[in-house]
Amino acid sequence: MSFSEFVADQNKPEGWNRPPKVEADGEGELLEVAMGPHHPSTHGVFRMDVALDGERVIRLKPVFGYLHRNHEKIAEGISYLGSMPFTDRLDYICPLSNNWAYALSVEKLTGQEVPERAQYLRVILCELTRIVNHASAVGFLIQEMGASGTPLMYAFREREKVLDLFEALTGARMMCNYMRFGGCRVDASPAWLDATRKVVAGLPKFADEFESFLCSNEILMARTQGVGILSPQLAVNAGITGPMLRASGVNYDIRKVDRYGIYDRFNFRVPLGDHGDVYDRFMIRLLELRESIKIVEQALEDIPVGPIMDPKAKIRGFRPKPGEAYGRIEAPKGELGFYLISDGGPNPYRYRIRPPSLINLTVLEDMCLGQNVADVVLIFGSVDIVLGEVDR
Amino acid sequence: MAVDEQLKIELGKQGVFVTTIQDLYNWGRRNSVWPMQFGLACCAIEMIATTMARYDLARFGAEVFRPSPRQADMMIISGTVTKKMAPQVVRLYNQMAEPRYVIAMGACAISGGPFKQGYNVLKGIDRYIPVDVHIPGCPPRPEALIQAFMTLQKKIEAQPLTGEGRPRHLDAEAQGEFPVPHPGEHDLEPTSNPGVWTVPVIIQ
Amino acid sequence: MKTVEEIKAAIEAAVPGAAVEIVPNPSPSGQHSLRIAPVHAFAVAKFLRDDEDLKLDFLSNVTGVDWPDKEISEKVKVTRTVTKTVAGVEQAVEETVEETRKRVEPGCLEAVYHLFSVEKKHGPVIIRMRTVNRSDLVYMPSLTPVWRSAEFQEREVWDLYGIIFTGHPDLRRLLMWQGFKDHPMRRDYVEPDDFEYEPTAHDQVLARARAHRAAKQNAAAGQEGTGAGQ
After folding, report:
1. For strand C139-141 and strand C164-166, is the pairing parallel, antiparallel, or unpaired?
2. Is the pLDDT of residue B184 over 50?
3. pLDDT > 70: what percent of chain C?
4. Does residue B152 sit within a domain?
5. CA-to-CA dists, residue C36 to B122, C78, C155, angstroms
6. Does B16 map to a domain?
7. What is the pLDDT, as a whole number, of residue A80?
């Protein structure tokens, strides 16, 4: 069949899920502005080509690729375990959850079992990362509203305490490279667990403090309520996941749906938003922060003694049998998935990362059209992206 | 005419300070280096952590991070420079006013880092612009960034005002504008700037 | 959730003429996939999204895969009639000889879609589509009008692999710059030559660095030659 015949045979596509058309008011020209790649409020090197009619946004096209580091191509040339440090550098604010997503996918591919203590350690570290990420996300959002760094200092104060714990356990502040296929790399001593309990004991007070002086602020409420509304139907169809999806009212948290790891043993709630605006998104993050504190407290109480690595796990000469697997977790930014195709060799044949930040940006145009250009920065901040993940 | 150290201390106790123009000039310059807010990747998070309450960089004079290159003295290249981003980095460097300094933070900015083998990663930003201080690490600790800052301050302190080695803004023949690479069909054109970067010799 | 065979039967019942093939997955993950012919993909996708039992309203992941051309050498038994002298008499004798024949099995590009359901909370259902070859017949229908989340991911597959998605509202490059000419994630892509300084090279990088130095020496020798010749 030739190309023209092929195209003629296609059904006419439906257009209901395209961004709405916003008309300029006809007087004067549109001002085309490139916001980025070097911009104080974009979370990294990200560019938005915005066409403005006065202050209103008529058209918005995101441009990325400024941090495309060809991680997927590098992974095809090195072994499975060799890609583990590269996964740290994907979502660089929460490195340990990326490690878990990759380890989970490889464990699905090979059918390995993870011992109990390793599961508990994974949950503790991932939930601590979620707390740090949500606090930083809200801190950055407030800074972009003009608060000039102070809320971010509070968030980073807690982050430093948690990073001290990570450094004591794994040896590195940020790029921890801690999970392995079948368990974890290093065992946690009882002294480390006590230190974690102390840090976690101080976290509810931090959450109260953070919430109180932000949520009773009338400038914040006026600027964020009713801005950047995302409907639940569009959110599901556009593949949005994470706090952004739950802020629109859709009850889908992969920890509850897939029940990976040992999340079915913990008692925690999934907060949902009513309106899907910027205010809902950042309140959902603060509420999820509190739920994560509850999970860590429960995990620290129940953690058993035992091995942290599957005894049958092969480190050298790791060659999974041919096949493929798709594993996903609820990362702090959304659904982080890894799709691996193995051809029986030591390197993966295809290594694909499903980036939550890239897919959450699909609806940036829909949320920003018709709004003021000052709100674009807020809406973009509420999506909470990390360029390392968008561009890989 | 150099003044005796003992005499300087004695006069200092009486409230009279004696110095040279070079010391005074460089003291002013090195204690108020304002960086540009330029974070590319993971190292940017450590750079932000360095400016936060625990490892405060403002004590060393980097009081505010200016978003505009016209108002900044220093550019901290923190993170991987890709071939798509390299022209913008060189353009921003050209827009900074002299005296300007560059710190290449992290393995990716020095030589491409862990992502070196790739079709979109520039193997080190010193291919196009002159770099003053390199910080190894992936990512370097905040203390390493503070040490790099102090190294830069020592370098500024040692710069004479006349003669060989004087800073570029006092040198009429110094190159001010560096050519911006152009993204071609397969790669950046040119792949490096031979005036800035010569291939190091590998001794085997 | 239905098994892969039940889903195949449901698709074949709803979309007449749809050719659906089950691709088994030998790994312990048990995630078998369905291969669909590109001509029916749009109708199948709409059925999967709107069917009451499946309600796969959430497209999670679009992946491009490159299966390069394979050169297969087979040993084939060929029977030939040869005239031979047997016991002094010329006769026509049949003899069987083993020959090695080489043939090229054409490769293709593949797109893999992972579907989940937010309403029914089940999944994944994996569908795959293959192009005809890797050189000119690389088109397949875009599923962006069915699931909006395919918009950026299909642009990325076009950018890195070269599959043309017909019906996509805005098919441009996503990660590389607009003037870039190659499709970098293909298996036969050769990186541009900036291997001037490789201090710790080994394997492929060492080979490229040596090739780069040899090319530079040849260029320098060539220039000297012409300089001396003048």
Report:
1. parallel
2. yes
3. 93
4. yes
5. 40, 37, 21
6. no
7. 92
Residue of B nearest to A148 (CA): B64
d(CA B5, CA A58): 69
Residue C25 at interface with chain A, using a CB cutoff of 8 Å: yes
Least confident of A39-43, A151-155, A273-277, C109-113: A39-43
**How far is residue A104's CA from residue C150's CA, in Å, rounded to a whole number?**
24
Contact C81, C92 (CB under 8 A): yes
Q: Is C115 a residue whose pLDDT tops 70?
A: yes
Residue B65, domain member (yes or no): yes
Share of chain A above pLDDT 70, in %: 95
What residue of A is the nearest CA neighbor of C115? A239
Positive or negative, the Cα torsion across C30, C36, C38, C43?
negative
User: What local confidence, expressed as pLDDT, does residue A15 receive?
Assistant: 53
* Nearest-by-CA chain C residue for A334: C60
Nearest partner of B125 among B102, B148, B153, judged by Cα = B102
Complete edge-to-edge strand list for the sheet that includes strand B74-78: B35-36, B74-78, B101-105, B133-135
Residue B153 is part of which domain span? 31-161
One-letter amino acid for residue A102 of the chain: Y
Residue for token pair 């209103």: A56
Residue B105 contacts residue B148 (beta carbons within 8 Å): yes
Residue A12 is predicted with a pLDDT of 46
Whether C225 has a pLDDT exceeding 90, the answer reads no
Nearest to A110 among C28, C142, C152 (CB): C28
For chain C, percent of residues with pLDDT exceeding 90:
17
b (16+ CB within 10 A) / e for B141-170: bbebbbebbeebbeebeebeeeeeeebeee
Query: How do residues A290-322 score in pLDDT, each as one tens digit?
Result: 999 999 999 999 999 999 888 888 877 888 889
> Rounded to an integer, what distance in angstroms lies between the CA atom of residue A150 and that of residue A313?
47
| Contact indicator for A184, A308 with CB cutoff of 8 Å | yes
Look at residue C70 and tell me whether its pLDDT is greater than 50: yes
Q: How many domains does chain B have?
A: 1
| Confidence (pTM) | 0.90
How many alpha carbons fall within 13 Å on the CB side of residue A219?
Answer: 7
Rounded Cα gap, residues A288 and C113, in angstroms: 30
Taking an 8 Å cut-off on Cβ atoms, the answer to whether B84 and A73 are in contact is: no
Instruction: Characterize the bridge pairing of strands C122-130 and C33-36.
Output: parallel
Q: CB C126 to CB A257 under 8 A?
A: no
Mean pLDDT of chain A: 88
Q: Classify domain C4-67+108-166 at the CATH superfamily level.
A: NADH:ubiquinone oxidoreductase Nqo5 subunit (3.30.460.80)
The CA distances from residue A376 to A357, A382, B18, in Å, are 17, 10, 55
Quote the mean pLDDT of chain B: 87
Both tokens of A214, joined, read 């932000």
Q: In this structure, what CATH number is given to the domain that contains residue B39?
A: 3.40.50.12280
C116 phi, psi to nearest 5 deg: -130, 170
Per-residue pLDDT tens over the stretch C173-214: 889 888 888 889 898 888 888 888 887 887 888 888 888 888
Domains of chain A: 112-314+362-391 (1.10.645.10)
Stretch C62-90: mean pLDDT, rounded?
Answer: 79
Task: Quote the longest CA-to-CA distance of chain A.
Answer: 72
ipTM, 2 dp: 0.89
Domain contains B3: no
Q: Do A326 and C114 touch (CB under 8 A)?
A: yes
Task: Give the chains touching C; criterion: ≥3 Cβ pairs < 8 Å.
Answer: A, B
Q: How far is CA A308 from CA A81, A195, A337, in A?
A: 17, 20, 24
Chain B residues touching C179 at Cβ < 8 A? 183-185
Instruction: Categorize the per-residue pLDDT at C85 as very low, low, confident or very high, splitting at 50, 70 and 90.
Output: low
State yes or no: pLDDT of B201 exceeds 80: no
